[in-house]
Design goal:
The protein has one domain. α1 crosses α2, α1 runs antiparallel to α9 and α4 runs antiparallel to α14. The chain is built from 14 helices and no strands. The longest helix is centred in the middle third of the chain and has 45 residues. The chain is about 75% helix and about 0% strand.
């Protein structure tokens, strides 16, 4: 039983690593596309900021650990979590191979829901209701923690991208109207030069926000695994060198520091390995970007991620940055958007939760059929 717990933790860290290189593109695509930084420089910046962001909060981790699956309806075993992780990992690798910026967050959540449904057997109705409605007084459940953020974050990214872009143009127009030396600051050469420097800061902000929100999801999965293992007695006879695996008195709400540090480091390593196919899609195929556009998109997306993480909402980095880029492109010229590429991305978004959930569901049923679950 202990071996299975360790396998699940390993699988969770593999997911975190894949999340790092899969979602690296989300945080650095614009800064690479605008040629402000080279791909290597951008990856290292994102890796460092991912690490810092992952070390600065656990609100999202607590949501994943205790706010999605009703443990009164289904027993969350190590097998359930392993299948959930494998569902997310397989879908992430498929979309990475195809160069589609799908959501690692929703792949993980879809995998968790699919595995939970498989484990519920004849209690589907009770589980679906408990996950859909959740606790209205504590903002728990799929409705509060997945559905509302899934709908609101892309809309917010698109609208905020437009607002920030229009605001920046308004500032430039004001400088031109004032004239004099201030007017000279609004010349295209100076604007590109200024935002070329400013975009390094916005890319760093985006990397921090990605780590702050995304890294915590795997922290929550590991905490949930250890809490279930503790409840089942799998951790009763741990050797001294593994004593740190005990989840502590806080249960699902107690995210141990070793989990935080390990996930932060693993995500940073994954980020450092890059994800060039998705960078090409986001940075070049949707709309042509200049430094001012990249600054607006990154600032908009990072702000949404940071605010969502504060409230414990596992928002998709992919959705927020993709729609922010769309918003910036729309403000620039609606005709400049390449809708065929956007259509492919939207289909990947729609399919992520059911696809990852279906894979996880099938895997758990397979384990049950051979007596391993």
């Amino acid at each position: 039983m202990l071996t299975l717990v360790l396998v699940v933790i390993f699988a969770a860290l593999v997911f975190e690593f894949i999340n790092g290189f899969h979602d690296t593109a989300n945080s650095i695509a614009t800064v690479v596309a605008t040629k402000v930084l080279s791909p290597g420089q951008a990856v290292m910046l994102a890796a460092v900021m991912n690490l810092i962001g992952a070390l600065t909060g656990t609100a999202v981790a607590k949501t994943i650990a205790s706010g999605l699956v009703d443990t009164n309806v289904v027993q969350v075993t190590s097998q359930v979590i392993l299948c959930a992780l494998l569902g997310g990992i397989i879908w992430n690798l498929i979309t990475w191979w195809k160069g589609l910026p799908s959501s690692s967050s929703h792949a993980l959540i879809g995998g968790l829901c699919g595995a939970a449904l498989a484990a519920a057997h004849n209690d589907w109705g009770a589980l679906i209701w408990s996950q859909a409605a959740g606790d209205w007084t504590q903002n728990k459940g799929i409705l509060w923690k997945v559905v509302l953020p899934m709908i609101s974050s892309p809309v917010a990214g698109f609208l905020l991208g437009i607002v920030v872009m229009v605001a920046l143009w308004g500032l430039i127009a004001l400088l031109v109207r004032i004239g004099g030396w201030l007017g000279r600051l609004a010349r295209p050469h100076f604007v590109n030069k200024f935002f070329g420097k400013a975009q390094i800061l916005s890319a760093a902000y985006m990397g921090y926000a990605h780590g702050h929100n995304d890294a915590q999801k795997t922290m929550g999965i590991i905490a949930l695994t250890l809490f279930g293992a503790e409840a089942s007695g799998a951790l009763d006879d741990l050797p001294n060198w593994l004593a740190f695996l005990h989840p502590g008195s806080g249960g699902e709400q107690d995210i141990a520091m070793w989990i935080v540090i390990t996930c932060a480091i693993v995500m940073a390593l994954g980020t450092a390995s890059g994800g060039w196919k998705i960078i090409k899609t986001l940075g070049h195929k949707m709309v042509k970007l200049h430094p001012i556009n990249g600054f607006a998109a990154e600032t908009s997306s990072a702000t949404i991620l940071t605010v969502a993480a504060h409230f414990g909402m596992p928002v998709s980095t992919t959705h927020s940055i993709s729609t922010a880029i769309m918003g910036v492109g729309f403000a620039k010229n609606p005709r400049a958007l390449k809708f065929s590429v956007i259509e492919r991305i939207l289909w990947a978004w729609v399919l992520t939760i059911p696809a990852a959930g279906g894979i996880a569901y099938g895997l758990l049923r397979l384990l049950e059929s051979i007596g391993w679950a």
